[in-house]
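Re: weekly structure request thread

Next one in the queue (365 aa):
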Amino acid sequence: MNLPNSHVGFRTFSFEELTVWRTELPDVKFAVLPPGNTRPNPLIADDRLFVSIFSPGAVCALERDTGRLIWRRELAKFCGASVYLHDRNLYAKSSHTLYSLQPDSGEIRWSFCPYGTDGEWIYSSPTIYQGSLYIGDRKGFLHCLDSNTGETIWSKRTNSDENDDVNSTPVVVNGLVVVPTNAKIVVAYEAVTGQDVWEQKVDGPSTFGPVLHKDLLVVVAESVYLLDPTNGKLRQHSEWKGDSVAFAESTGRDVVIALRGAWPPKGSSESAFLNESGVHRTASLIGYCLHFRYLTEKRLLYASHLQGVDLLSPDTAEVLCKLTTTGRGGDAALVDVKGDRIYALTEGGSVHSLRHPDLRANGSC
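Done, posted below.
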């Protein structure tokens, strides 16, 4: 079933119409980096928001209720697409260094820079499991660090191909740390020891995810793979002739796929909903560079793109509301939501607290 982005009941709001507060962060050239996972930017943590600024690289903490800037920590010139909070420790990264920060002050606790600051060595994002932090690098290594000290526990070279980068975000499942690589393979190691467990070939480099869906691992390469995380065996494979997969998210029931599409964009972007049996629904959405985030408490998909944020039904793929950033810096990062507020970052460095549109029972705003 193909559903165009033309649901009669949806309404369009500008960010200005819904703004509770807006904070223009200082000294921002370009705030938003396309995400390599489903983590939001800004990130809600109790009464604060933590924001990663791509250029020039910085991390900021804001009061969630007022938008007041609490602290700003300058890092290297390019920062990641989001920060990561675990056990009251904040982790951020530049293109060559991983940092552990104090959430209250932004003070640097420790840093990990595997090859010096002259190049761009870390495109991967960290994941923590039982006190160990896992992150890849662009020389093909997966590192296991002590999350409290930054000291190396083990490092494994995942492959020896020319295109050997480990740019994706590791996941830990069933005691295994699993990471796709640019060498067209997915590899799994024992999380504690780093011992090799399994390897699975895929059809292209992987810089995204992977995502857990039910008891399966969703791996994005040129196409999308559903793997058994215990042994790497293929459960389901979906591909699109003449197109490739850019992003994936799980709603618990379905895996939602964003396709790359043509460049330059031609007005709409294609997405697909699939399960263990394959694709069962597709949708065309007006917007470029789609990235999805599903929030269980709202039972909604939030699609960020170059023109704003769409709110979609995860069951029908219909657009329920469109929130546009026209005149407010364009590209929106993956949002975070708490209660009746949506928190959004736009490419110009504006952080917005937006009133969440009221969705009536019939699914429209």
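Confidence is low (pLDDT under 50) at residues 1-8. The chain is about 0% helix and 45% strand.
Next request, please.
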